[in-house]
Amino acid sequence: MEIVVYQPEIAGNVGAIIRLSANSGIPVNFIKPFGFNMQENKIRRAGLDYQDLAFVKNYESWIDFIDSNKNKSIACLSSKGDKEYWNEELNNFDFLLFGPESVGLPDEIREKYLNLTIPMKERSRSINLANSVSIVMFEAIRQANVK
Predict the structure, then answer these.
(1) pLDDT in tens, 87-127
(2) Domain 2-146 adopts which CATH fold?
(3) Gap between the Cα atoms of 82 and 80, Å rounded
């Protein structure tokens, strides 16, 4: 199982996700365009010196990602999802896909895959992207260790 972040907008979130990858051993894939410059200090500050220890791959576009990963299974994580993430065997998917901070995944992508959600209180809009990745990533690790 790998994490995929579609068109991230906030450098600090990307840095935190890179750090999560380094600490968990779970690869992370970022799909361009980004809403920031990858050399921003916020990425380095949040990721500290973990970038060399993380498993990171960047894709130029959604089409590039899909073309490179044909026949792979994908589940989307979205506030619009209809199944709690913990009720699925997360490691059965090749990729867990997260959307950009301000708008989430486009409907045309979400409609093609299973949609999972992190339950929130009513009227909550969303959980921070890096926090969402962390929650789901460590549930996948927990599930793998229960077996």
Answers:
(1) 999 999 999 999 999 999 999 999 999 999 999 998 887 89
(2) Alpha/beta knot (3.40.1280)
(3) 7
Q: Rounded to whole angstroms, what are the CA distances from 67 to 5, 52, 61, 64, 99?
A: 16, 26, 10, 5, 19
Q: Which residues contact 119 (CB under 8 A, 6 or more apart)?
A: 84
Both tokens assigned to 132: 């969402």
Three-state SS for 59?
strand
| Strand blocks (E) in the chain | 2-6, 28-31, 56-59, 74-77, 83-84, 95-98, 114-117
Give the span between the Cα atoms of 131 and 40, in whole angstroms.
Answer: 20
